[in-house]
Amino acid sequence: MTQVSVPVPVPEEVGRHYDEYAALCDVTVGANLHFGYWDTPDSTATFEQAADRLTEVLIDRLPVGPGQHVLDLGCGHGGPAIAVATRTGARVTGVSISREQVSRATARAEAAGVADRVQFHWADATKLPFEAQSFDAVLAFESIIHMPDRGDVLRQVREVLRPGGRVVLTDFYERAPIPREKLPAVQRYLRDFLCTIVQPGDYVPMLADAGLRFLELRDISAETVRQTLVHMSAKLGGARQAELHREYGRDLVEKWNSADMIDVDEFGHIIVVAERWK
To answer: Which listed residue, of 60, 82, 128, 182, carries a Cα 20 to 30 Å from 122's Cα?
Structure first.
């Protein structure tokens, strides 16, 4: 596989990154700060509809219901946590390293009328502030991409899960060796978004080392990656580009626009499911 060289993310920098982008995220992607999922190649779903669909795909893998407690690890602006609570009846605690995200997610939960069972807190996911066996499930939408040590985070996830509890997450990975001519785009993307990618064989041993039992790894790249990048490029360019530049600054908007990644088919997206079995 290609050696993609980028700095290891630092939690404090990730928090500042999302504080800085919070307002722009609100007007471009809304409540879901993760990729979209288009079920078929000819789907005409909007980005917002596709992002909701990916939320559903992950909730389908969470066997939780009323009386149970879910941790949303890297809660973003609150969309997935609210969806989990609304659909399953479970209680949800979301954490983020970004205070702006916590504030906006809390406002969304209040507006949705679920603040009694959906709460958000500032916390560093590399130092989870919860007692052992506090949760029945853990959900992580593209948040582990920002963690300096995925294995360490998974060990902490195991500690806060009750026996039989499940973790469902999405991550970026290298589907195939990235050609030399595409490396600059990938390295820019990872650097600007403060994230790293894994290799195809990393997860099974990493989960085992964390004391978690592997259940599923599914490549969803065909349903998510290219379409998300195309939709985001359109949102940040076109007719609204000048307005967004004036409101949020040219540099910020252009940094968020990843049009140069659209043809990097080697950049992959996976769902990983595991459980604490004892």
So the answer is: 60
Answer yes or no: are the C-beta atoms of 273 and 216 closer than 8 Å.
Answer: yes
Q: What is d(CA 103, CA 77) in angstroms, rounded to the nearest whole number?
A: 8
Tell me the CATH class for 11-276.
alpha beta
User: Considering Cα of 102, then 105, then 110, then 116, what sign does the dihedral take?
Assistant: negative
pLDDT in tens, 205-243: 999 999 999 999 999 999 999 999 999 998 888 778 889
- C-alpha distances in angstroms, 237 versus 17, 25, 117, 202? 21, 14, 38, 36
Which residues make beta-bridge pairs with 94?
Answer: 72, 120
Structural domain spans, the chain: 11-276
Side-chain-side CA neighbours of residue 248 (13 Å) = 22
Nearest to 136 by CA among 205, 60, 66, 86: 66
pLDDT class for 183, splitting at 50, 70, 90?
very high
29-62 pLDDT per residue, tens: 888 999 999 999 999 999 999 999 999 999 999 9
68-88 burial code (b ≥16 CB/10 A, e <16): bbbbbbbbbbbbbbbbbbbeb
Return the amino acid letter for 65. Answer: G
